[in-house]
Amino acid sequence: MIKAIFFDFDGVIMDSMTLKLDAYCECLSQFEFARPDVDRIMREYMGQSRHKIIVVLYEELHGGKIPQPVFDAALKRFNEMDDAAREKMQYLPGSLEFIQSVHEGRFTAVVTGTPEDFILKATAHHDLDQYFDIVRGSPDTKRQIVGELLAANDLSADESIFIGDGRTDQDAADHHNMRFVGMDNGDASFHPETAWKVVKDLTELSTLFE
């Protein structure tokens, strides 16, 4: 029986990856990085914090260590765009209905690489807090957050699943010997061959909870 469900947010609950890509392109727009290159790196590091991805984008596409003023300005601009994008976020097909159907009687949590203050604003804006026992984000890693939540809530990893679309999601699940469900949204970075299940949307999991 599945007693706990850990959800990534972007690309699992919300169809927000294009909005993230827009923000990464804009925050470093002075360097005129090609959008497909920014997209490729963003997908590769999916699930890690914006602090990490901005640095990697600069280092791989420009070369050298990113100057602190450039990083500070890029992060500020990214945060501004992320705040503005909150109202534009749309649910992925079936995601809200699935969350509504499984939260009662189970421990449910959002575990994301988005900074915690930003993800709390996003879940509050979309009135999602009622469906989750807790919402957690960076700077703590997903491995760390999952471990803390398992211990603090006396949860068993073999009665839990993690639903995500990135390698960091899969890594967190594997580290704690938890079943991993991969969301194959066309640009996911997890390894499907080692996932417990691979689904196109959350409605494909509904039979597990009937």
Name a few traits of the molecule:
210 residues, single chain, 2 domains, 6-stranded parallel sheet, Rossmann fold, 8 helices
Descriptive report:
With 210 residues, this protein is of the alpha/beta class. The chain folds into two domains: 4-15 and 90-209, Rossmann fold (3-Layer(aba) Sandwich); 17-87. Helices cover 42% and strands 15% of the residues. It has helices at 17-27, 35-44, 50-61, 68-85, 95-102, 116-125, 142-152, 167-175, and strands at 4-7, 107-115, 134-138, 160-164, 179-183, 197-199. Strands 3-2-1-4-5-6 form a six-stranded parallel β-sheet. Helix 6 links the parallel strand 2 and strand 3. Helix 3 crosses helix 4 (68-85) and helix 7 crosses helix 8. The radius of gyration is 17 Å and the shape is globular. The mean pLDDT is 93.
